Amino acid sequence: MTTEPVHVTTPVEGVLLVTLDRPEARNAVNSRLAELVAEAMDRLDSDPDLRVGILTGANGTFCSGMDLKAFVRGERPYVGDRGFAGVTERGPEKPLIAAVEGYALAGGCEIVLACDLVVAGEGATFGIPEAKRGLVAAGGGLLRLPERIPYHVAMELALTGNHMPATRMAELGLVNRLVPTGGALDAALALAGEITANGPLAVRISKKIVAESLGWPAEEKWARQREVADPISSSEDAREGALAFAEKRAPVWRGK
Length: 256
Fold this sequence. Notes:
Number of strands: 11
Structural class: alpha/beta
Helix content: 40-55%
Number of helices: 10
Strand order of the largest sheet: 1-2-3-6-8-11
Strand content: 15-25%
Largest sheet: 6 strands, mixed
Order of helices and strands: EEHEHEEEEHEEHHEHEHHHH
C-alpha cells in the first residue's frame, strides 16, 4: 500500500493541519508532495469553516528541501501559480503557521518563509544551502530572507550555505515563538486558537494588508487600504464584535 506524502487533518475547529510525511527522504519535496500541499491550500482558501492553516513535518523534521534524486530524474515540484512545494509563490489567503522541528533547509526553509507566522522548537535548524550544490534558492529564499532578517545575515546564509539555529532566528525576528524541542505543533495550535477567536473577515484582510502593503507606492497606500478595509467596517461581523464587547460576551462570527 502506498502512503501519501502529505496528511491533511482538522485537529480543532477552524484549523487545517498539513503534515509533510516522507520519512525516507526527511520530508523532501517531490512532485506528489507539492501537488497535495497545493490542494490543501486550495481547501483552506475555499472552505469557510477553516480560519487558519498549520504546515508541519512528521518524524521530527520539517523539510530538508527539494528531493534532489527526483530532480535528477526530471521531476520539478512546482504547481501552477502556487509555485515550489505548492505554496511558495502564492500562499493561502488565510493565515498559515509553520510549526518547525528539526531541519528546515533549502526548499524547506523557503516553505517556512512562505508562511505568515513561525513557531519553532529550540533544536530546529534553518538554512538555504543551495549554493553548496550549485543551485540557487529560487523558491523565495533569496527574495524573502532580506525582508525578514538583516541584509548582511541574509547574505551570509545565501553565500555560505551554512545553517542557523532556531535560537538565533528567534533573536533576528524570523521565529515568532520559540518553544522546547517537540513542542512546536502544540504551540502552533495554541497560536492558531488565538487567531480563530477573532473575526475571520478582519483576519483575512489584515493579512492581505500586512503582506502586500510593503510593495504599494507611498501615494497609494491609504487608498488601497481603504479599498479592502472599508467593507469590513460595515460587515455583520463588525457589528457583532461591537455588540459582544458592549454585552461582555464572546462574539459569534458569521464571516459576513
